[in-house]
Each structure stands twice: as structure tokens, then as C-alpha cells.
Design brief:
- The chain is α+β, with helices and mostly antiparallel strands.
- The protein contains three helices and six strands.
- Helix content is 29%, strand content 29%.
- A six-stranded mixed beta sheet has the order 1-2-3-6-4-5, with helices on one face.
- Helix 3 links the parallel strand 4 and strand 5.
- Helix 2 runs parallel beside helix 3.
- The longest helix is centred in the middle third of the chain and has 18 residues.
- It is globular, with a radius of gyration of 14 Å.
Length: 128
């Protein structure tokens, strides 16, 4: 099967050795995504809902580049820095996925690569 890597152009991709997304056959894996725009600026500030919403929109964009859509998502993984804010993360997640209902996990972690990031999301899509 052919493998296609999708880059965001972030300098970290070459330093760490990863891609924004990888498609092999009808499978698309999207790497951990945080609420940072193309200018490396935080989106959503300290608002967990806004960060989550922006992240899912970013994921949707790279899925489209890979020939998939949000409807093809079968799993998401949410890594959060404060599980007490689960309703904020969940509200945004539900706005995108309430009718799709992928498998998901919400896992509280000690921290992300920068303290202003409240959540990081990974996604797996299978193109039907």
C-alpha cells in the first residue's frame, strides 16, 4: 500500500521526526494536535472549549487533505491537563461527533509541551 505523509510545515516535525498525518490505504492517522495556528499562536487562550473546537477544526482540515472527512473518524484520544474541565472539552467534541460517535478516550496528563495547552487530540479515520 502507498504511504502519504502530510506536513503542517512546523519546524518540530523534522526535529522530532513526525508528520501531521499519515495515510496508508484507507487509514488516516492524525498526530497529537494542539490549539496553535499557522503562525504558532495559541488559539482559545485559557478557554478549554475554544481550544478543543479549534483543534478538531485543524484535524478536519488535514483529514480533507488526505481524502477523508470528519465522518470517517473512528477514534479520538483527548489528552487533557485538567479532567475537572471534562464538560468543556466534551461539549466541543460533541458538536463535531455527536452523530458520528467514534470511540474516544479522555485522559488526564501531567502536562503538555507548553503550559498554555489545555488539550491535545489524536484521531484515526478509516475511509469507507
Amino acid at each position: 500500500m502507498e504511504r502519504t505523509n502530510y506536513s503542517s510545515g512546523a519546524k518540530w516535525e523534522d526535529i522530532v521526526g513526525y508528520s501531521r498525518a499519515v495515510r496508508i490505504g484507507n487509514l488516516v492517522e492524525v498526530t497529537g494536535t494542539v490549539a496553535v495556528d499557522e503562525n504558532n499562536q495559541l488559539v482559545g487562550g485559557s478557554d478549554a472549549y475554544e481550544q478543543t473546537k479549534y483543534i478538531i477544526q485543524k484535524i478536519e482540515g488535514v483529514l480533507q487533505k488526505a481524502g477523508a472527512s470528519i465522518k470517517d473518524v473512528v477514534r479520538t484520544r483527548m489528552f487533557v491537563t485538567d479532567i475537572a474541565r471534562w464538560e468543556e472539552y466534551g461539549k466541543a467534541h460533541g458538536e463535531f461527533f455527536s452523530s458520528i460517535k467514534p470511540c474516544t478516550s479522555m485522559i488526564e496528563i501531567k502536562g503538555l509541551i507548553a503550559p498554555e495547552y489545555l488539550i491535545e487530540i489524536e484521531a484515526t479515520a478509516v475511509i469507507a
